[in-house]
Task: structure prediction
Amino acid sequence: MAMEDEDVNAAVVATNNTQTGASKKGGDVGGTGACIDRQPDKGVHPAGLHQTAGRGSRSGPGAATGIRVLKRNMKRNGSRGCVTRKTRFGSRERDWLKGDTQRGCVCLYGATVDPQPPASGPQASSTPQTDLQLVLCSTSTTVEELCAQRDGKGLYVQLHGDLVRRLDPSERPLQILYDYLASMGYADPVRVQQEAANSDLSCLIRFYSERGLSGDQQERTLLKGVFSVRKGKTQLHKWAERKVILCGTCLIVASVKDSLTGKLHILPLVGGKVEEVKRRLHCLMFSSAGSQAQTYFVNFDTLADYQRWHRQASKVVSQTVSMVDLSCYSLEAVPEYLFYSQDITHLNLRHNFMSLQGPGGLLNLPRFSQLKSLNLSHNRLGVFPECVCEILTLTELNLSCNNLHVVPVQIGNLQSLQTLSLDGNHLSSLPEELGGLSQLNSLGLSFNNFSHIPAVLERLSAVDKLAMAGNRVETLELCTLAIMSHLKNIDLRLNGLRWVKSESPDAVSQVTQLDLRDNCLATLDLSSICNLETLHCQRNQLVTLTLSGFTLRMLHASSNRLTTVNIYPVPNQLTHMELSQNLLEYLPDWVCDCRKIEMLDITHNLLSELPSRLLNSLSLRKLLAGNNRLQRVPDLLDHVPLEALDLQHNRLAELPESLFYKALNLKFLNASANALESIPPSSQSEESLSTLQELYLTGNNLNENCGALLVGHQNLRVLHIAYNQMLSFPASKLSKLELLEELDLSGNKLKTIPSTVSSCKRLHTLIAHSNHITVFPEILNLPEIKLVDLSCNELTEIQLPDSLPATLQDLDLTGNNSLMLEHKTLNLFSHITTLKLDQKSTTTAGDSLSASTPWNHGYSEMSGQRNKLCVSVLTVDRFGDGVEACYGIFDGDRNEEVPRLLQCTMGDVLCEELQHSSIDNVYMCNTFLTSHRKLGMAGQKLGASALLCYIHHKPSDPGGYLSLTVANVGTCQAVLCRDGRPVPLSKVYSLENCTEEMERVKLSKAIITEDNKVSGVTCCSRLLGCSYLSPWVLPKPWVHTEPLCSQDEFLILGNRALFEWVSYQEAVCTVQAVRDPRAAAKKLCSLAQSYGCKDNIGAVVVSLHIGVDSCTCEPPVSTTEPRGAPPAPAPVTVTPGPSEPATLSSSSGIVSEFSSETSASEVGSEAGSTASDEHQSSGPAPRPERRCSLHPATTLCGIMVPGSGGSGTHPGLFQRQPSCATFSSNQSDNGLDSDDEAPLEGVISNGSKLEVEVDIHCCAFQLRSGSTESAQDFDLEKRNSDYPNGKMRRQNSVVVSATNGCLLAVCGREIADLKKSPSTCSLFGKKLSNGSVVAPEDSHNLIEVALEAPKKKSGYFNAPAQQDPEDQLIVPPSLEQEVREQLRGQSPLVSGSSITPSFKEPVWDHPHPPAFPSNMVPGPGPAPFLQQEVYDTAL
Result:
């Protein structure tokens, strides 16, 4: 419901604005003002002004002091129903807001109402509409003042679409709104004011003038009505109209109609029956339980009433206890009828806003005479409700998270109390009367403010667990625990504990479990706790640890600084021990003497050897010894029960010879990242008893001989043998692995996959990227095949069966530069969920600028063992003005929608924020906060980690050094390789890794579970979209800017799963060894999977080629790999030599033969790399000269000069690194009508109209204006001119977009429109089924573009793949100078266009000069020759 500007400006601002004499904070809005009613069909009606004696009158927007209400009735439909910022206020309102940042607008929503028809005129629509009022006020305006202005009864606030709370009369709505925005991360007061006035913010915080009540809430709390009722099963009683109520656990029937006066009949339903009466329509029979059961028949009027009552009554009768659950319904009081249910024993009022007063307030809860359990957690009580101490029957009381500071002495009245939960409050002491509760056995005091263990616990002899996690206990006196002899389980996590003192020689004999995780302990001596069974002390700073081993069963001491662990006597009961991520150089001797140890984790230490007795233990079943310095593993002397062995990341050259036939129970072995040259045999004889199921040997020196040794493992299900030295895999050996399900052969030197792979009938995953494979393996006949990755190979063709298996979901063929796909093949691929292809296209004029990009990238996304891909990446090599780029990665953990939304929006949001600020911390922070709001608008509440990298020049020095600005929330990380060393650029926002964030979350009284998750949901303290956990989880990012230099080689972006398994240094070394960004990203993900990662993995590798002075003219270092990497890009001109016809597409006819039937398939590239999108030419060609924005390459636009042999280059030619498909522009509709030359408004391409309902956000490109160049630019361009006469050439902006294969020249206003719509640059709306939306320049690719096209029998589908030679202007080298001189005197058109632009004294109506089609040559004039600048965009 949009309002016109003139309607707003015509609104009358109140002339009697008043001002109170009293001084008020934050502004001069103290009196009442005018209520301006603005509706489409009504005029402006100033509300009556309440004049007050002693108040003056002012006029004018600057001196306005009244509260202004702009009322609109509108139907909200997402963001389109919101009033735009321009039409929201009139000029006076806008001026008034600009006068003070403490002023602002509150969007006040009413209940859903039916509009009343006007007095005259047509009847209004009966569609319910939302009443929205825009209230102008200041931060000092209270609820009481707003209600007096509106004659309202109260205001309500709702956060994140959740509970609705009534505001106190003294609360200030605008201040609440400003505080909320400030807590999110907004710092600029002006921006806060603007965001507060944005009605889209209502998805996060919304104010109501009335409380709404949903149907579901009414059904759960109360059902009532007047129905026909009959008592008893006999016919003695007659049917009568009576008022019937179903509330709580009882059915209430009045004795008179329409009234509850007189006698009420109460029918308890718990344990009773509710049955359908078939003899009467819509009739139910309600019966109570017991021998003296009563029965009532109720006949309902409608089927809806019948179903509603039947559903609710069925829940009540099915209960075994009399429990009423009224949680999460914004209740201020319980329904008064609930007190008739005197049998209620359990009442749940969690997550409400219960008040003390009122008929249904807390003061009346003692009326429940049988109440045993009461849950009042999360009610914002502020004070302990003493009235609950009068409910003497209570056995369980939960008052967690209520901002309580004191527990009253009346708590001693609850002698029957057994469980008391006081977690998440502000308590620092407990009353002595609490010690009189002899039956209390559970007391929750976690996340309070206790600095010591309360002494009253000594008297609570029935309490066996001390739950005090998240307090402020810095010193633990063991003598205190000795006095409290009843405490067996001690939980002191997250206390900042520094010392554990044992001054008394007395033993602490009763404590069996002790949890000291996430504290600040340096030493820990618990030898006096003689009966300790379980100890958790992870994530401290322990150097020494001393324990008693009499009864010790489990020890968890990872992530410390331990060099040794002292346990005496030998812990013969020890079964589980974790000592990972410490500084152990050797294992203590007592470890080998443990008789019952089953699991030992010693990963990430400094161990150089393993004791022989340990490996030959008769109890050890799982040994994790990876990431150490082991050089050998001792031999096995006898049969051992070992089931899992992890030896990855060591220095092993061989494994024990007897490993497989001595450890017959071994099912899991990971020996990746070692120096193995062979593997031990599976048995000593031909018959093998091996039970091995998972074998990981990635990153060794194994050759093809190891294939014969794998035959004995016939139970093998998972085999990872990637990145070794295998030239082949024995065909006869592979056929014997019949149970194989997952095979990874990536990164070897294989030329083929044996045809015997078809014998592996259970195979569902084949990963063999980065090899030399030329023939597609025979795997498409396998019945269970799901994923095939053959990227970065040398495939030339694919031989397919007549039909593909229905199970095939993911096929990756990217990086096969010689692969040609036929029409039939593409049809067969149409049903594949995720198809990833790289299709070549010949370089065109539109790609000359892409060759000057000083970086190129590759990326990879792998779902692992998860059913869906919840990781998405954003990659744009050309972003914004000049030489800029934008990269990002988004991890939704288990949510796939949020990463997709962020991928499609964040680039565009960044572009918009760059228009408002040039400060890196400001525009990056606002980008994240705006994206957070957009996720809320999309209805998303689940969060995602996000990382965004922006490469740019300083705004103050466009020609200066390049900088890299990184912003992130969550666990996505960025690492820069500088001089061969990793430089972390991001901050990991997880509770385990960030101490300050842990403290912030604790101060906000969040409940952190034992696995370090906020409310048990997420381990991250900052995420995008996780609005329902605010203020504990915030969207404000970490922002860091790093200047780039010539020593910077590449940038790595990865999600949590990647860097959890691959260290920074290993990631850097991996990319250095591979060099090609696409193959490097693939390798990173494959390594993480081989190391043990089961989750989604995402990696982006950006290769940087930065000159010494940040100039980008220098040619980049070769990024090709000796093995199977694509060749260097050969420059191909728009018009080839005379020996071959001109073409704008290298598809060799494939594109023109595309059938629109393939549009159902989702295709794209998983690891698209601009560097890998190169094409072989007929002969060797030099690398094109790289140019930057300061030193542009000089080109002769429209002149195609053939080189020798068709493969040479010319300095005056546009050149392109192929990135996406281009089609013949003279054969496509191009958005033009058949009789018109001008493009039709709204038509993007191929004649189809695109309607954008919401922002299709991607990454924006901006066109440089040739009309506003400084003198420095003139001199710079003149010095770098390649023309002999040294004339300065201005750059004119021309947008050439590969839109569904059509070259589209956009000029004039269209350029400005495209500039405003960054989505036209890269990620234009194509969403892959795996959750990825990637930039077309990443290899997306004529197949994806064609599949997006509509079904049509004409146009580019039937267009020839090559242009006619006469459509091009071919100039021999000998005539080039003459033609150039002639072009200066006239303006011919290369292809028949009737419009010749004039460049003499241009006058622009917008900041961008008009563009002309790429086949037009500028005309003459005194202005210097204009060089075209071609931007490649995929629409």
